[in-house]
Amino acid sequence: MNEKKVKKLSSLRIKKYRDKHRQFLIEGFRLTREALSAGTDLTALYCSESARDDLEKASAFRHVPVEIIQDKQLQKISDTVTPSGIIGVCAIPATDIESIPKNDNCIFLDSLNDPGNLGTIVRTAAWFGIHQIVLSENSADPYNPKAVRGGMGAHFYTTFYPNISAEWLQSCGKKILVADTGGDPIDAIENIPEPWILVMGSEASGVSENILSIDHQKMSIPKFGKGESLNVAVAAGIILSSLAKS
Predict the structure, then answer these.
(1) Does CATH place domain 97-245 in 3.40.1280.10?
(2) pLDDT tens-digit map of 184-214
């Protein structure tokens, strides 16, 4: 592989270039195998010379073109300190918020700027059958390498709608549920009408006032012990579990 191509691939670690090329990176045998299983638009696969034996043992890759590259080249492309030996390049699909399924339950992330938390929420949402995630203008990029790693393959089953203003919530046609410490306890809420959209805010500032000005229902997680607050990804999991039972 020539150095120009290495430079282009390594640039995909930066949002500006992911947006420019409409591509993102995935790393590791587990993620690339999941991408193949999900039928993701994988445009290329690269394996380091030192990981060639692992590649040959993995049946999922036997009929897939994989380019063998030097270890130092894969190291330059990788976002991790110790690369696992294989990297895939995936296309970022174009999405339109107007095409979001009207009957699907969704999540709206309001200024959630931590990509690790975002990835965990994507993974958790997929577990509970939520595959539509809307992100406000100030939220982290779902294709950030940390978010992709945190998603553990859930990205391949999720549709993202980035840079959506809070005003969209007024016309989305879904019951708006807001996670808020001042809301009704989730275990006391019954018969929530579907479809709904769960709004999660940032840990630092919560849900923005322009969202709170829209008709909504607040939900809270009862506290039985100590601690100032819950991690936003943990809170999302608890609420989604409760919603799944309602």
Answers:
(1) yes
(2) 899 888 888 899 999 999 887 889 999 999 9
